[in-house]
Amino acid sequence: MKVILMEDVKKLGKKGEIIEVNDGYARNFILPKKLGLEANGKNLNDLKLQNANKERLAKEQLEAAKEFAKELETKTVLVKMKAGEGGRVFGSISTKEIAQSLKAQCDMEIDKKKIQLAEPIKSFGVYEVAVKLHPKVTGILKVKVQEDK
User: Fold this and answer.
1) Dist. CA 49–CA 93, nearest whole Å
2) What secondary structure letter does DSSP report for 30?
3) DSSP per-residue string spanning 50-68
4) Going by C-beta distance under 8 Å and a sequence separation of 6 or more, which residues neighbour residue 91?
5) pLDDT per residue over 43-61, tens digit each?
6) In whole angstroms, what is the distance from residue 107 CA to residue 94 CA?
7) What is the pLDDT of residues 51-89, one digit of tens each?
């Protein structure tokens, strides 16, 4: 019997796959536990529509991430740090501080986990910070670090 899996089943397949299983296994295990549906015409058509919808949503998310990346590249965020004698800096700038400054200054919200610092920012100047917006899209944000007086 052909079955469309509705959930990942260990040693059998992933969600959305069409697999061939014994009739008894399908009737006694897969179908009662709602792990899959019988692969008839209606269910196959529903699966095709769901896959098309998922592809469309993924494409929209990718386009939105590209747009956001373009907008992000035009922005510069100002972050202030305290410094001691001789311009020595106390601590470093964290991704949380960058995210908070971006929200306050540009009214753009980014999760701090998406901001990727190659190395800690421990001195004054302008830095380019990578922001992972989508698995295929990485934007660049300029962070200007100044002395807080």
Assistant:
1) 47
2) I
3) HHHHHHHHHHHHHHHHHHH
4) 81, 122
5) 999 999 999 999 999 999 9
6) 19
7) 999 999 999 999 999 999 999 999 999 998 888 777 777
**Cα 29 from Cα 19, distance rounded (Å):** 14
Is beta strand 125-134 parallel, antiparallel or unpaired with respect to 76-81? unpaired
CB within 8 Å of 65: residues ≥ 6 apart: 133, 134, 136, 137
What's the CA gap between 7 and 73, in Å, rounded? Answer: 40
Q: Which of 3, 14, 9 is nearest to 36 (CA)?
A: 3
Structure tokens of 139? 């934007």
Question: Cα 33 from chain centroid?
Answer: 31
Residues in the chain: 149
Counting beta carbons within 10 angstroms of the beta carbon of residue 23, is it exposed (0 to 12), middle (13 to 18) or buried (19 or more)?
Answer: exposed
